């Protein structure tokens, strides 16, 4: 499996943990004090970092730091939209499409060289 694909898979998995750590508590822990939510989220974020750090180290063997960052942003949107729709039950907005198109432009410019 190419390094860029291994990196993307690992970043996707870490981003799932990140999204739940950052936003999942809004739905599932809304009745708990903020410090309880923060401790739980830190625990979830630990798993994010245990995957994200090796992913970035692996990816950096063939990709630039800018390419890694843009890859992460694309993955973030790709994970966040289904999370927002399915878990948080937020309405689908056309703004997600526009954001995705902007990211496609970023991908083009950062990977074209």
UniProtKB/TrEMBL annotation:
It comes from the Bacteria. InterPro entries: DUF486. The chain crosses the membrane at residues 6-23, 35-55, 70-87, 94-111. Pfam families: DMT_6. Keywords: Membrane, Transmembrane, Transmembrane helix. Signal peptide: none annotated. The keyword Transmembrane helix applies. This is DMT family protein. The lineage of its organism: Bacteria, Pseudomonadati, Pseudomonadota, Gammaproteobacteria, Pseudomonadales.
């Amino acid at each position: 499996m190419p390094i860029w694909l291994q990196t993307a898979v690992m970043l996707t998995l870490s981003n799932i943990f990140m999204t739940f750590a950052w936003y999942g508590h809004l739905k599932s822990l809304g009745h708990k004090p903020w410090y309880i939510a923060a401790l739980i989220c830190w625990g979830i974020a630990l798993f994010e970092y245990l995957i994200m750090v090796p992913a970035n180290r692996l990816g950096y063997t063939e990709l630039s730091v800018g390419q890694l960052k843009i890859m992460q942003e694309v993955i973030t949107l790709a994970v966040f939209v289904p999370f927002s729709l399915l878990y948080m039950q937020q309405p689908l907005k056309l703004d997600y499409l526009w954001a995705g198109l902007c990211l496609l432009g970023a991908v083009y410019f950062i990977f074209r060289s």
